[in-house]
Every structure is written in C-alpha cells, then in structure tokens.
Amino acid sequence: MKRPWTVPMLYVLCGAVVAAWLVSQGSSGTAAVLLVLFVLLAVAHSPVIFPRSIGALEAQRRSAADGRPVVFWRPGCAYCLRMRLKLGRSARRLHWVDIWRDPAGAAAVRAANDGDETVPTVLLAGRAHVNPDPAWVREHLSPSA
C-alpha cells in the first residue's frame, strides 16, 4: 500500500458506513460521535498531521548544513504518529521524508535496516537510529534551528 491517503479514506468510509447504520437504527447522536472519531483517526493517519515532506537527498543536504535530524516516516505508521505527537512543535524543526512518496528515502531506510522499511528511522550525523525515543530526538535538535 503505497498511497498515503488510502488508510485515512478507509477510516472515513468505515465511519460513514457505521454512522449510516446507526442512524437507520435511530441512534443519530451515537452516529455523530462515532463519525467524528473516525474522521479524527483519518486525520491522525494522514500526511496532514506531519510537517511537509521533502526528498531524501534534499533532506540530507539540509541536515548537513544545519545539523538537524532527518526523519524517515510513512502515513499510517503508529510509531511515526507517536513520535510526531510527542515532539509537538519541535517536529517542525526536523526534516521529514515520506518513504512512500520518495523512492530515495525508502532506499535509504532499507539500507539502514538490512532491507526492511522500518520507520521512523532518524538519520543524525550520518548515523541511522531506528524508532528512537522522541525525547532523545528533541535533545539532538540544534539550538539554532
């Protein structure tokens, strides 16, 4: 599944089906709450919640210039979402690469993980770190960034 909007759209579709069924059963309040929940899940698993992705080569060039880490991620990844949410506003200071949109990014992740596309993979000073603690990533942000 290489389309970043597939999972979010499935959440919305499932939510709409469940909501329609609940409305037909006379539970419109429950239907509205569940539909909102499914939409929130869709947003959380979409590219919208992440900072704008750039290509792997551009991210590595920028990282070499400013010392900020590069985060390789993909939509629908719970660990990527966890990192993004725990980093809060600090996430904007990182260079994000969506491996489903950038073949060079996917290749870089496979090279760092013995052929697996394990994300999030954080590249810092030329060294790959697989699924690091978000607090560790925050510590390694350069103060000037």
Write a compact overview of the structure shown.
Helices cover 50% and strands 11% of the residues. It has helices spanning 6-24, 28-44, 56-66, 78-87, 103-112, 134-139; strands at 70-73, 95-98, 121-124, 127-130. It has six helices and four strands.
Question: Any chance you could write out the topology, listing elements then pairs?
Answer:
Blueprint: H1 6-24, H2 28-44, H3 56-66, E1 70-73, H4 78-87, E2 95-98, H5 103-112, E3 121-124, E4 127-130, H6 134-139
Parallel strand pairs: 1-2
Antiparallel strand pairs: 1-3, 3-4
Helix pairs in contact: 1-2
Highlighted features:
4 strands; 2 domains; 50% helix; Glutaredoxin; 6 helices; alpha+beta; elongated; 145 residues; four-stranded mixed beta sheet
Plain-language structure description:
The chain has 145 residues and is of the alpha+beta class. The chain folds into two domains: 6-48; 51-139, Glutaredoxin, CATH 3.40.30.10. 50% of the residues lie in helices and 11% in strands. The protein has six helices and four strands; from the N terminus they run H-H-H-E-H-E-H-E-E-H. The chain has helices spanning 6-24, 28-44, 56-66, 78-87, 103-112, 134-139, and strands at 70-73, 95-98, 121-124, 127-130. A four-stranded mixed beta sheet has the order 2-1-3-4. Strand 1 (70-73), helix 4 (78-87) and strand 2 form a beta-alpha-beta unit. Helix 1 (6-24) runs antiparallel to helix 2 (28-44). The longest helix has 19 residues, at 6-24. The protein starts with 5 loop residues before the first helix and ends in a 6-residue tail after the last helix.
